[in-house]
Design goal:
InterPro entries: Aminotransferase_I/II_large, PyrdxlP-dep_Trfase, PyrdxlP-dep_Trfase_major, PyrdxlP-dep_Trfase_small. By secondary structure, this protein is α/β, with parallel strands linked by helices. The chain has two domains: 5-40 and 272-363, Aspartate Aminotransferase, domain 1; 43-270, Aspartate Aminotransferase, domain 2, CATH 3.40.640.10. The chain has 13 helices and 13 strands. Strand 5 (159-163), helix 8 (175-184) and strand 6 (188-192) form a beta-alpha-beta unit. Helix 5 (88-99) crosses helix 6 and helix 11 (271-293) runs parallel beside helix 13 (351-363). The longest helix has 23 residues, at 271-293.
Length: 369
């Protein structure tokens, strides 16, 4: 069968990504995936132990009420402002379908999460890109914010994508800058806060405070990065009631399984465990970064607010050097905005795993490939 013009265009322009799958990397130290290493709440083991065969037969609650109430309590936002899906990626795909027509424009600030641009391409939209610079530590400067606003207004931009903290750089964008974009454009501003809840940023710096004050902003959250539930696939959009009603109507029915809803609720309710694990992650991040700074040939791209960061070697391909030592990191040499700059993204893991990374980096300090 022949693909539609939109599907053909997307297939033709689809880029390779840094995501690796399959069994090719069994036995490797995996530092390429941005999920945390810490143990899950003990409450989860008890919950899973109490599940019966009947729990696997249950039709999921289409509105995810129990899970939304847990999310409401965790993020201190009304439950009616929350929509749940099978991972926040589902919203990244859905939002352009709802608010863009073919040839409409969207803005991204590179380097950033590749799915933003890809989701726009899938609906035959056009991506207008801005690029942060290494010299400014990949910060979205006031000049970039001003250019984004002017371009959005001059080109009838439908969506502006922001990532806070940004993936892959770990840099943050201030709430003042986000608010400036929201107030001065009519575009839908989508703020992906996937890494926010395992970062140095405080609640007062989250864009959640804007969702009930402005009609053109949504915030994305995920349980993969913050809580380590990558396999469960639970993501949230938090927005004003009008937008959440639209998303509820258009997202797939029964998208989040009964088991996923139960697991997500239990994990969100154990705030004490989350705080403890968050502190452990950030402490471990500081340890890793301090050790890397001692290695002369390894360059840290910029300060990071979360548990991912970019590094490169002054001579040689850091991705290949580590791969040859059975350590898999994310190759960002193909990422828009930092193409051919030699950067790889590291995800902070346990002390044992991080120690192995540092040991290998020291051994390849003088290597060139």
């Amino acid at each position: 069968m022949k693909l539609s013009n939109i599907a053909q265009n997307w297939t033709r322009n689809k880029k390779n990504t840094y995501v690796k799958g399959g069994n090719d990397f069994d036995g490797f130290l995996r530092l390429d995936i941005g999920e945390p290493w810490f143990p899950l709440t003990p409450d989860l083991e008890r919950t899973l132990g109490n599940l019966s065969v009947d729990d696997f037969k249950k039709r999921p609650d289409i509105h995810c009420l129990k899970l939304r109430n847990a999310a409401s309590k965790f993020w201190n936002v009304p439950a009616e402002n929350i929509v749940v899906a099978n991972g926040s990626d589902q919203f990244i795909w859905l939002l352009p379908r709802l608010f863009m027509n073919p040839a409409d424009n969207a803005i991204v600030i590179n380097p950033t999460f590749f799915l933003f641009s890809e989701s726009v391409t899938r609906v035959a939209g056009k991506v207008i890109s801005f690029t942060t610079s290494l010299s400014n530590k990949f910060e979205a400067t006031e000049q970039i914010i001003s250019d984004v606003i002017n371009t959005a207004n001059q080109n009838s931009v439908k969506i502006i994508w922001l990532c806070n903290p940004n993936n892959p750089t770990g840099s943050a964008i201030s709430l003042d800058k986000i608010l400036k974009i929201v107030k001065n454009t009519s575009a839908l501003v989508i703020v992906d806060e996937a890494f926010f809840d395992i970062s140095d940023l405080t609640t007062s710096e989250s864009a959640l405070s804007l969702v009930n004050k402005h009609t053109n902003i949504v915030v994305l959250k995920t349980m993969s990065k913050t809580f380590g539930l990558n396999n469960v696939r639970v993501g949230f959009t938090i927005a004003n009631k009008e937008l959440t009603k639209i998303l509820e109507d258009w997202k797939l029915p029964f998208e989040v399984s009964h088991i996923a809803q139960e697991v997500g609720s239990v994990v969100l309710n154990d705030v004490v465990h989350w705080r403890k694990m968050k502190q452990a992650l950030l402490t471990e991040r500081d340890w890793v970064i301090n050790k890397i700074r001692e290695i002369k040939s390894i360059e840290l791209a910029s300060p990071t607010k979360t548990t991912i960061f970019l590094i490169r070697k002054n001579e040689g391909d850091i991705f290949k050097l580590l791969l040859n030592k059975n350590i898999l990191v994310s190759n960002f040499n193909i990422c828009k905005g930092i193409e051919d700059m030699g950067f790889a993204r590291i995800t902070v893991k346990s002390r044992a795993e991080n120690t192995k990374l540092i040991s290998v980096l020291k051994k390849i300090d003088d290597c060139v490939i």
